[in-house]
Specification:
Layout lengths: L2 H9 L35 H11 L8 H10 L4 H13 L3 H18 L4 H22 L6 H17 L4 H17 L5 H11 L3 H14 L3 H14 L4 H18 L2 H16 L6 H32 L1
């Protein structure tokens, strides 16, 4: 497996692809915290964990999430999702030792959870090994991380055997499947997209994943459609504006269209207006792609003016 492909699998997973999340779908049972994944058989994920989840994924506010995760760690210590989120935030800061701490905490909580909820327990054992594999990848090598990747798929398969249509499972596994499908030649993108669209939830997070997949497959019309759907459902998330801007930029370059490129620039600017919410690893390429868009607009204008002078 190429190093770049494995890096994408490890660094752009469900958590690191900078995912988003929506408001609760349906009605949950009295006494349970909102389950952001399920409309039936909801799990008691925890109030603080859920608030952190929405702050990070629905609002795209990385910086505002930390306080809620600290509350979750002290008051909801059995929920592996909160530790997984802490680990993923550590990744965005390249804080590898903190990533390792929360990878281990994710694994410990997942092992305990598996006794009463084997689906989510196996799922977060996969996530925990994924985070630990990311740590190994960064501190050692891609080859040292291979065994961890095998464990990730082992536990994902165990969860799938128990509940193949579970939306939380299909969201996490679906993002990995999409990354594999668009980066490895032997994978079926169509099959991965169909399963992800059918079983993962919530819808706007699915829309975002599909937009990314179609973008990477260079199917820009479909990518733009799903990026707009994600933006309509979570309009305050700067990453959604960034994603739509990327796709518009690709279309504008292909068509040599100032109008489309200026639309892309507008969306880059909206995303940058909320850059204080975002980690540097997102802001830096965002700024670079904005500059490249401005340069392309200037280039097309210069070519147009030159042609007009020649014709005159």
């Amino acid at each position: 497996m190429k190093k770049l492909s494995l890096f994408k699998i490890f660094s752009q997973s469900y958590f690191i692809v900078t995912l988003v999340f929506t408001t609760i779908l349906g009605v949950v049972e009295p006494g349970l915290a909102e389950d952001p994944f399920r409309t039936s058989n909801p799990r008691n994920i925890g109030e603080h964990t859920e608030t952190a989840f929405k702050t990070l994924f629905f609002m795209g506010d990385y910086k505002g999430t930390e306080a809620f995760l600290k509350l979750a760690e002290s008051e909801e210590p059995d929920e592996p999702l909160s530790y997984a989120l802490r680990g993923s935030l550590a990744f965005t800061e390249e804080d590898w030792e903190t990533l390792k701490i929360y990878a281990d905490k994710t694994l410990e909580a997942a092992k305990n959870l598996r006794k009463k909820d084997p689906v989510r327990g196996n799922l977060y054992l996969a996530v925990g090994h994924f985070l630990d594999g990311t740590y190994i990848y960064e501190k050692d090598s891609v080859f040292a991380a291979i065994n961890k990747l095998q464990l990730v798929f082992q536990y994902l398969d165990a969860a799938e055997d128990l509940a193949p249509n579970d939306p939380e499972l299909n969201l996490i596994k679906g993002y990995m499947d999409l990354l594999l499908a668009v980066n490895l030649p032997f994978s079926s993108a169509e099959q991965a997209i169909a399963r992800f669209e059918a079983y993962a939830a919530p819808n706007y997070l699915v829309d975002r994943g599909l937009a990314v997949a179609y973008r990477d497959l260079k199917q820009y019309d479909q990518a733009l459609e799903f990026a707009q759907k994600a933006l309509d459902k979570a309009p305050n998330n700067p990453e959604h504006y960034y994603l739509k801007a990327q796709i518009l930029r690709k279309i504008g370059k292909k068509q040599n269209s100032i109008t489309i490129l200026e639309d892309a620039l507008k969306h880059f600017n909206v995303a940058l207006s909320k850059s204080e919410q975002l980690p540097r690893f997102i802001v830096k390429p965002l700024e670079r792609e904005k500059r490249q868009t401005e340069a392309k607009i200037a280039e097309i204008k210069a070519e147009t003016n030159s042609q007009l002078r020649d014709e005159g």
